[in-house]
Write a structure and sequence with these properties.
Helix content: 55-70%
Strand order of the largest sheet: 1-2
Distance between the termini: 44 Å
Low-confidence stretches: none
Bound molecules: Phenylacetyl coenzyme A
Mean pLDDT: 97
Largest sheet: 2 strands, antiparallel
Structural class: mainly alpha
Strand content: under 5%
Number of strands: 2
Length: 306
């Protein structure tokens, strides 16, 4: 009965709120996806944080700093939203550290040049927006509301990245080469962010039934590719896919096969930077122990006073 009422609510486009009854599997599914999303935002600060001290101008540095801070904020909203499902932040972080929880594959690639800041903003935030605009209509209220604010900020991030790429593409020959090289390295990993093909995506069935996901991995990937090709053309860069071709009949771009071995290798912890990213997170977490302790003690004292 509960289950029928729950599904009816979803089918009628009503949001599920923290105190509403929900099936255990729906709760678990959300905890998994939302916490992985939160971890991605936080781990995603590392590849860009790497360039803050080397930004080429004060303006570029201020913009990058603001962007990286935004990502921390996104992580915090998402952890808070996940906590409404009855799990603590400590447990979520512990799941990340023990590799039970994943984070997006994209953040396991190194950032080798300033142009990579452009490629990440343009492509990675661009892909994140396509996914997250869709998630604004997800069925769980706190997740949907977090997405609305996050999408506004991601849109600024995408523009800052595209501006870096556009400037470099019209700069010196070396600068244009750097921009093209960043696009070559980040293109395939960016389109892998959308996850495995639909035929190979075990979570999609329930996610679509419960309207956690509104579009499938392949639909979102296609949407991103269709949007991005023209943006590359405008700034004179070439997408590194010889099979990329407009298909008049489908009204979409056809594109080449992704290297799924590489994708699963990175997802399963063996990408170029997986070990480094996790070790850095653990170290920062350990070093922040005293801050968490002090905050807890302070909160306790305040409770006694009030
Ligand atoms: N990386 O059955 P599916 C950002 C896993 S945006 C790693 O298709 P699902 C902003 C998947 O978890 C990036 N793992 O799963 C930013 C599952 O494993 P599990 C974060 C992946 O959930 C920009 C298994 O493979 N965005 O951070 C990936 O239906 C710049 C089977 O896959 C989100 O997390 C992958 N790419 O679809 C920050 C969006 N793909 O959990 C800083 C919310 C799949 O069973 C700088 N999440 N897996 O052990 C989603 O939309 C979905 O969870 C998908 C995966 C689409 C990621």
């Amino acid at each position: 009965m509960n289950e029928e009422y729950f599904q009816e609510k979803i089918d009628n486009e009503k949001k599920i709120e923290p105190k509403d009854w929900m099936p255990d599997d729906y709760r678990k599914h959300l905890i998994r996806q939302m916490s992985q999303h939160a971890h991605s935002e936080v781990i995603g600060m590392q590849p860009e944080g790497n360039w803050i001290t080397r930004a080429p101008s004060l303006r570029a540095k201020m913009i990058l700093l603001a962007k990286v801070q935004d990502e921390a904020g996104h992580g915090l909203y998402l952890y808070s939203a996940t906590e409404t499902l009855g799990i603590s932040r400590e447990e979520l972080v512990q799941q990340l550290h023990s590799e039970k929880a994943k984070y997006s594959s994209i953040f396991n690639y190194p950032t080798l040049s300033w142009a990579d800041m452009g490629a990440i903003g343009w492509l990675v935030d661009g892909a994140a927006i396509v996914n997250q605009v869709s998630l604004q209509r997800t069925s769980y209220g706190p997740y949907a509301r977090a997405m609305i604010k996050i999408c506004k900020e991601e849109s600024f991030h995408q523009r800052q990245g595209y501006e870096i790429m556009a400037e470099m593409a019209k700069g010196t020959k070396e600068q244009k080469e750097m921009a093209q090289d960043a696009l070559n390295r980040f293109w395939w990993p960016s389109i892998m962010m959308f996850g495995p093909q639909d035929s190979d995506s075990p979570r999609s069935g329930n996610a679509m039934k419960w309207k956690i996901k509104r579009q499938t991995n392949d639909e979102l990937r296609q949407n991103f590719i269709d949007k991005t090709v023209a943006q590359a053309e405008v700034i004179g860069l070439t997408i590194p896919d010889p099979d990329l071709k407009w298909n008049e009949e489908r009204g979409h771009y056809d594109f080449g096969e992704m290297d799924w071995d590489e994708f699963w290798n990175v997802v399963n912890g063996n990408g170029p930077c997986n070990k480094q990213r996790l070790a850095h997170h653990k170290k920062a977490h350990d070093e922040g122990e005293w801050v968490r302790k002090a905050a807890k003690e302070y909160a306790k004292k305040q409770e006694l006073v009030n």
